[in-house]
Amino acid sequence: MANITFDLNFDLRTLDEVDTQENNGRFANLVEKDLDRIGEDRNEESTKKVTKWGVKLLKEWCQAKELTTDFEQLDVPELASLLRRFYGEVRKQDGSSYANKTYRGLRAAIHRHLTGAPYNRHVNIMRDKDFQSANNVYIGMMKKIKREGLDVSCQKPPISEGDLKTMFESKVLSTDNPSSLLNWRWFYLDTIFVVEDEKVCEV
Fold first, then answer.
1. Structure confidence by residue, pLDDT tens digits, 82-101
2. Which of 100, 107, 177, 200 lies 20 to 30 angstroms, CA to CA, from 87?
3. Is the pTM here over 0.85, yes or no?
4. Residue 6: inside a domain
5. Same domain, 81 and 102
């Protein structure tokens, strides 16, 4: 009986090794800067601009008061003390008070800056107990501005029935395509969640 031989060339890699190589090619390799950039993209461009404005304003105030502009590096008690004073003293270039809506945006901008890259601080300047004294001044200033009639924030007059009808008939507001659907969505969100205590602008 003839001898039969087989030339078996097995790939001796284990299944685990194969899976590891496949997964290495499947997943991205990101460095810290890449992750920071992705984290920053959670905010719209308009929000980023407001954040830059708020930080710039705080740093300008620090310079004027001969305080450190590196407020991001301050420990919590020092940061809370600085913000307490800032909330009470911040003004527009002409010396008048900011509208309450702008005032709210200013505090939110500083919070985003501190908690975002590259600082990533684990603080909440709007809710943490360590910032209660600072927020008492913040709330007090908001009430003072409103009580003295200095809040100039306002909303535009309501859309007329004719203009509203035109927007629907022209399909600017509709569910027919992604663009008009987005307009439709924002229109109803703004209509439902309108700020009640703002005055109507005179035009």
1. 999 999 999 999 999 999 98
2. 200
3. no
4. no
5. yes
pLDDT tens digits along 23-53: 666 778 888 777 777 776 766 788 889 999 9
Domain co-membership, 63 together with 100: yes
Q: Do 192 and 130 reside in the same domain of the chain? A: no
Please, which residues bridge with residue 154 across strands? 199
**Is 5 a member of any domain?**
no
Nearest C-alpha neighbor of 139 from the set 78, 89, 196, 88: 88
Task: Say whether both 183 and 146 belong to one domain.
Answer: no
Please give the full DSSP string across the chain, using - where no structure is assigned: --------------HHHHHHHHHHHHS----HHHHHHHHHTTS-HHHHHHHHHHHHHHHHHHHHTT--S-GGGS-HHHHHHHHHHHHHH---TTSPPPPHHHHHHHHHHHHHHHHSTTT-----TTT-GGGHHHHHHHHHHHHHHHHTT----EEPPPPPHHHHHHHHHTTSSSSSSHHHHHHHHHHHHHHHT--TTSEEPP-
Residues 174 and 148 both lie in one domain: no
Look up tokens 């022209």; give the residue: 170
Count how many domains the chain has.
2
Averaged pLDDT for residues 125-130: 96
Sequence-ordered list of residues with C-beta below 8 angstroms from that of 97, at least 6 positions apart, any chain: 91, 103, 141, 145, 150, 151
C-beta of residue 113 within 8 angstroms of C-beta of residue 65: no
Structure tokens of 72?
């991001």
Question: In terms of residue numbers, what domain contains 194?
Answer: 161-200
